Structure formats: structure tokens, C-alpha cells
Amino acid sequence: MLTEFGRVLIFFIIGAVFVAGGLVTAWLIRPNRPYPSKLTTYECGEVPIGDTRVRFNIRFYVIALIFLIFDVEVVFLFPWALVYSQLGWFAFVEMVIFIVILFVGYAYVWRKGDLDWDRPAPKIPTFEKGVGVREDHLLEEQVVGS
Amino acid sequence: MTGVEDLLQTTPLLIVSISGLVVLVIDSIFRNGERLAFWLAATSLLASGLHGLYGIGETGTAFSGMLTTGGYADFCAALFSLAGFLTLLLSRDYIGSRTTDRGEYYVLILFAVAGMILMASAADLVVLFLGLEMMSLCFYVLAGFTRTSFAGNEASLKYFLLGAFATGFLLYGIAFLYGAVGSTNIDLILSSASHLRDQTFFLIGLSLLLIGFLFKVAAVPFHMWVPDVYEGAPTTVTGFMSTGGKAAAFSALLLVFAPRLASQIGPVREVIAVIAAVTMIGGNILALSQENIKRMLAYSSVAHAGYLLTGVVAANGSGSTGILFYLAAYTLMNCGAFGVVALLESREGGRTSFQDYSGLSKSSPVLAGLMALFMFSLTGIPPFAGFFAKYAVFSGAVAAGYTWLAIIGVLASLISVYYYLRLVVLMYFSEGEHPVPAPVPLAYAALLAAAGAVLFLGLFPSTILDLTATFF
Amino acid sequence: MDLFDIVFYCFALIAVGSAVVVVFSRNIMYAAFALLFAFFGIAGLYVLLQADFLAVTQILIYIGGILVLMLFGVMLTNRVVDVDIKTGTLQIVPAAILAAVVGGSLSGVFYSTWSTVSGTPSDVATTTPAIGEMLMTSYILPFEIASIILLVALIGAAMIARRKT
User: Fold this and answer.
1) C77 and C2 in a common domain
2) Chain A residue at shortest CA distance from C150
3) Is residue C134 within 8 Å of B63, Cβ to Cβ?
4) Most B CBs within 10 Å, among C140, C147, C159, C165, to test the B interface
5) Considering its fold, how many domains does chain C have in total?
6) What CA–CA distances, in Å, run from A111 to A106, A108, C158?
7) Residues B178 and B188 sit within 8 Å (Cβ to Cβ)
8) Is C93 among the domain residues?
9) What pLDDT, on the 0 to 100 scale, is given for residue B262?
10) How far apart are alpha carbons C85 and B276 in whole angstroms?
11) Which of A145, B177, B434, C60 could cross-link B363 (Cys pair, CB 3.0–4.6 Å)?
């Protein structure tokens, strides 16, 4: 078993070497000419407004919660998959019961609309005398993914 | 190999959990399935309860020694199912007027009862832990069921954080016991305890397990969460938590600790005795100064955990039978008391202070009468069930040589007379104006049934005492 | 000191070092990402203990699920950088007592079982089929209960996070 995971470890090590090697080589051969514009977010673009840290939509969290539950379910499937051919119908029925119970939960969250991605109605910018009024307060409550 | 026989031996568990699933399906499919969901949930809880009461079978094990069946397990299953049934009847209108998610409420009550049944019938610590988790998860959600109420959210979060911490202790204890003995089977752990060369880890595991349980039964000094959670949670949920939840924790405590407490695990017994004494005194003294009925009942529930622990310390037939009788009586009277509070409570959660009850006997004589009856029973005044419950556990303690504990118990009960009867005096000998609560037939039926049962058990305590005596 | 020991100390260092970063980092995002390495180090230790199923579970659930949930939790908190999140030390005395008790009991276990554990791990091919067989036979009841517990968790999570109706 250890040898199997040993291969995984070697894979990890090679991966790390590749990343480190690329960075080190770049550091060695690149010319060093720092100037302030290089530190801006978009070197050749607009100056960003506001903070990068915006509040995420709560929907992400709900989906992640639901995902976690089914993640745990999947973990139970692995050992079952290895032995069900020996144990036959009995093990099959057990796993069907297990999955049906969770499927009821899945049907429940689906039906109750917890998987719906509710988008707020799009805000159409208002125009006054031909000049677009930017609703800056909207940026305050900007929500990613909505 | 597991088969159909195993399933048949665990009928109450099967009924409750399957109906939980079906209610969830009904709630998901039909937009207006509330009525069907409610009656299905109520019927299945009643069926499971009656099965437990009338079909108590031979003691055995099922599912490769994971569950004990028959006898004790069946009786406890009946008790939890009836607690769930009463709660369901009391809360249909209460919950309906405060939130729209009634389907989930029934599902969570059903699964909580299933978790309790698992706890009382566990033959293996793994099952015990899973049952406890199942029950606790349902309670965490139920405590915050009225999602718009800040107090409810606070109660839910507080209960969740502290409860998860306590579960951690319990699990750590199970791990230590497994490390010491090499098994999670309760019988095997207890019987091999005396053969161990080094009992250190066994005792560490046992005390961690005890801490987890003491948190769940709300014994001093693990009672800090009780007043806030009991006050913030929806009143009917509080009733369920304080009766079903406490009963389940005690039935599991009895399962793990009672069989060998007297003979082998000496220091643990003394520790429980001290905790019982502190709990009885502390709970009652703290309850004295409360002005909110829900908080008063919360501290009184702490005190009752102390009386019940006295029965655990006794660790003899009388103490254990006494605990089961006490749990039955306590379930009835406390569900009833919280039911009355729920009926009188305003939709915003107000009208729960002592002053709001003054002169209640004029405006709603039936509710006042019922409340007075439950208060008398909680105090332990004959001929109500509460009296015989206390008598049974205290006499068990005396028989086991813990007379000092019984004396403390009696003195602590004397303190409790003040705050229980203060409510009765306020209701009958004070003036006050009250809006008459809308009549809720289901809740009134449940309250009358509970009151009738409290009186019946008080007059004929042997009906249950004789039955439970056969379990030990 | 053979290769096994070297790998063990590497993973132990990763786990403990990242855990220290988690506790002492003033930036909550750094703490969350350091937790990833702590979980990973522990998964490596599980592998060295011949607990392959646990190792994979650790990666699947803790790194793939719980950590993602935690990161979302951090990002959900509006304007993390503006708020002064308390990373100071509170309740030193109770924490010290608790840590001493837990650490003491763990080292007690460690020293008393030290002599009984053989130095070289037995070479088991894999534990997963044995776990599967146990789950399907003697642990069938806990297995099915687990699915109901997951269901309850699902209902609770979905309900609490749902918008007001």
C-alpha cells in the first residue's frame, strides 16, 4: 500500500519541483527593471474602484453545504463498491436504501428551491437629461454572482 | 447476517424513521400537504408509543449486537414517542402562526424521536453516539425554528456551539474507552473494566463520557446554556427538549453507568453523587429569582436533572425504576407546563413573565387550572405523579446508603415550593387583565390528556413501577 | 533514520507548522489556507499509518468540502479587511488548563502504549475492502443511521440558510 501512495508522493514532489524550477529559472534569467505601474492591478487598464473583497452571494454557501453532505455520501460509496460483488444483493439493497434516504433530501432541497439561483432584478441605469447617473451606492452592496 | 427479524424487533424505530421520510416526501411534493403530514406524523408517533406500551417484548439484541430490543428499550421508545406526540399536538397552531415551514418541523420532531430511541436501545457506543447526534442536530435546528426571531437564532447558535463542544467530549471519551478495552460494545466495556491492568484510561474515558451526558441532561456545572436556549427557543420546542431530550440522555446514562456503578467504578459514583447534590441545590436557588416563566422552568429543569441523578447514584432496582417513572411523569407535566405557556404567549414571544399570569384564573380558568396542576406535580405534592417520582428515586438513594443525598433532595424540593406555588398564587389571588387566547382544540386535548395522565400516575403509580421493575 | 522516518517528519512538520500558522496568523484568509496544508499533512500521516481510507476521506471531505465551506464562510463575511477580527489571546488560564489536560492525557496514552506497538508497520494491502465489508455486515445499522443523520443535516442547513418566506 505504501508503494502505491509512494507514487503519489513522487508525483507531488515532481509537481513541486516543476513549479519551483520555473520560478527559480525565471528569477535567474529575467532582467530586473521595477517601476510603479507594474504594481497596479491592471497594468495597462483602468484603475479599479473599490475593494476586491466583495461579499459573496449566500447561495454559494448553501450550495457548498449541500455539496458537503453528498461528498460524505460518496465517501461511503467507495468501500461499498469494492465489496458488493462478494456480498451480492444484500449489500446492493443496503446501498439502495442509503441512497434513497439521501435522494429524498435531494428532492426536498430541489423542490423547496434551495438550488435555484435567484437573481435580483437587473437594475437599469436611470438617465437624466441625457447624462448617465452612476448609482455609486450600488457598488457598496455589489454582490458577486448575482 | 441481518434480516427481517432484526427489523421487526425494532418496530418503534422503524415506524418513526420511515414516517419521517414519508412526511418529508409529502412536504416536498404537495404544496398543501401540511394536514396530511401532520396526521401521518401524529399517527405514527402514537402507534410507536402504543406499540412500546402494549407490546413490550423479550429482551434481545438486533443488528449484530448493535441494538438491544424489548423491555427497557421498548418502554423508553414509548416514552419518547409520547413526548413527541404531545409536542406535535401542542405545536401545530403555535408553529403555524409563526412560520410557514411546518412540514420540516414534523420531520425534525420525528427524526429527533428516532435518535432518542437509538440512544435508549444502544448496545454499542457507536450507535449511542449516532443517536445522540441525530437528536441534537434536530434540536439545534428546532431551537432556531422561528428564523425571524433574534432570541431564537441566539438560542440555536448557543446550543449548537456548546452542544458540539459537549459532543466532542463524549466522542473523546468513547475513543479512550475503545483504546482501553478495544471494543465499543457497552456490555463488553463494562465487564472487562475489572480485568484491566491499568484503569487510568478507562476512567478518563468514562469521565469524558459522563461530561458529555451531564451537558445533555443540563446538570450543574454544565447548565450554563439552559436558560438562554430554553427562553429563546420556540416554547413547544423547549418543552420537547426538556422532556424528550432529557429523558433520552438519562436513558442512555442509565444504560452505560447503572449496571456496574455500584460494584466496580467507585470514584465515578461519588462524583455523580456530588454533582446531583450541587444540581439540586443550584437549580432550585437559581430558579427562585427568575421573573420569566420560561427561565424559571429552565432552572427547574436543571433541578429535576439533579433529582434524576440521585436515582442514577442509587444504582439499584428502586433507583432505576424510579428514574423511568420520573421520566414518564416529568415528560407529562413539563410538556403540559410548556404547552400552557405556549398557548398564552403572544406571537412576538411576549407575555411570558410572572406578572402576565396574575389573575389568570378569571380570564381562562381551564388553563389556570391545568397550570396549577402541573405546578403542584412539579413541586412533588401528592397525589400527583411528581410526588411518587421523587419518592421512588429518593427511596432508592436511601436503600443504597445515600441518605444524605435524599435529605438534600427533600430540602431542595422545599425551596422549589416557593417559585412553583408563587405562580399558582399569582394566578388565583391576584388581579390582572388578559386577552383570552383563541381556543385550540388539539392543544387543549393534549393538555387535558397530559393532566389526566399526571393524575392517573399519581393515583396508580404501580401501573408503571411494576412494569419498569421487570427491566432491572 | 530511513526514508519512512524522513517522510514522516516531513508530513509532521507540514501539519504542525501549518497549524501554528492557522492559530497565529492575523489574516483570516492566510489562516484558512494554512489549514489546507495542515489537513494535507495529516492525510500524509494517515497514509504512513496504513490508514488509506482515512487518508482519502481526509482529503475528500476536509480539503474538498469543509475547507471550501470555511473559505466561503470567510468570503461571506462582508468586508473582512475593514473589520478588526479578534485574533488576540483570550482566556489564557482556562485554555492553558484545557490544553494541559488534553495534552497530558494524550502523552499518557503515548507513553503507556509505546512499548506495545511494534516499530515497523505491518504491510496491509489496503483497508478499504475490509471497511466496506464491516459497513455492510455488522455495522449496517450505523451505516443506515448515518444516511438519516446526513439527511437531517441537509434539511437543517437548507432551512436555516433559506431566505425568509
Assistant:
1) yes
2) A69
3) no
4) C159
5) 2
6) 8, 5, 12
7) no
8) no
9) 65
10) 41
11) B434
- Are both C74 and C137 inside the same structural domain? no
Domain boundary among C82, C114, C143: C82
The beta-carbon neighbor of C136 closest among A60, A66, A94 is: A94
Nearest to B255 by CA among B324, B202, B186: B186
Q: Is B289 exposed, middle or buried (0-12, 13-18, 19+ CB in 10 A)?
A: exposed
- Does some domain include residue A10? yes
pTM: 0.90
Q: What residues of chain C, 85 to 114, have a C-beta less than 8 Å from chain A?
A: none
- Report the largest interatomic distance among the alpha carbons of chain C, rounded to a whole angstrom: 63
| Residues of chain C contacting residue B179, judged by C-beta atoms under 8 Å apart | 109, 113
pLDDT of chain A, 146 residues: tens digit per residue: 667 888 888 999 999 999 999 999 999 998 888 888 778 777 777 777 776 666 677 778 888 888 899 999 999 998 999 888 888 888 899 899 999 999 999 999 998 888 887 666 666 766 666 554 455 544 444 444 44
**Mean pLDDT score of chain A:** 80
The answer to whether residues B317 and B258 touch, using CB atoms and an 8 Å cutoff, is no
Within a domain: A102: yes
| CATH number for the domain that contains residue A102 | 1.20.58.1610
Closest among B305, B365, B378 to B337, alpha carbons compared: B378
* Chain B residues with beta carbon closer than 8 angstroms to that of C148: 17, 20, 111, 114, 134
- With beta carbons less than 8 A apart as the criterion, state whether B13 and B121 touch: yes
Is A18 inside a domain boundary? yes
Q: Residue B156 and residue B153: Cα distance in Å, rounded?
A: 5
The mean pLDDT of chain B is: 89
**Residue A72 lies in domain:** 2-117
For residue range A35-62, what is the model confidence (pLDDT) as tens digits? 887 787 777 777 777 766 666 777 788 8
d(Cα B320, Cα B464) in Å, to the nearest integer? Answer: 12
Q: How many domains does chain A have?
A: 1
C116 domain residue, yes or no: no
Whether residue C76 sits in one domain with residue C16: yes
For residue A137, being part of any structural domain is answered with no
Beta-sheet pairing, A55-56 with A143-144: parallel
Out of C30, C50, C82, pick the residue that ends a domain: C82
Q: What is the ipTM of this complex?
A: 0.92
Range of the domain at C151: 123-165
Name, in order, each residue with C-beta under 8 angstroms of B103's C-beta and a sequence gap of 6 or more. Answer: B23, B24, B26, B27, B28, B33, B34, B37
- Residue B373 and residue B384 in contact, taking contact as beta carbons nearer than 8 Å: yes
Residue C146 to residue A80: CA distance in whole angstroms: 14
Considering the domain architecture, whether residues C78 and C155 belong to the same structural domain is answered as: no
Question: Looking at residue C11, which CATH number applies to its domain?
Answer: 1.20.120.1200
Q: Which residues of A touch B21 (CB under 8 A)?
A: 101, 104
Contacts of B148 in chain C (CB under 8 A): 164
In-domain check, residue C153: yes
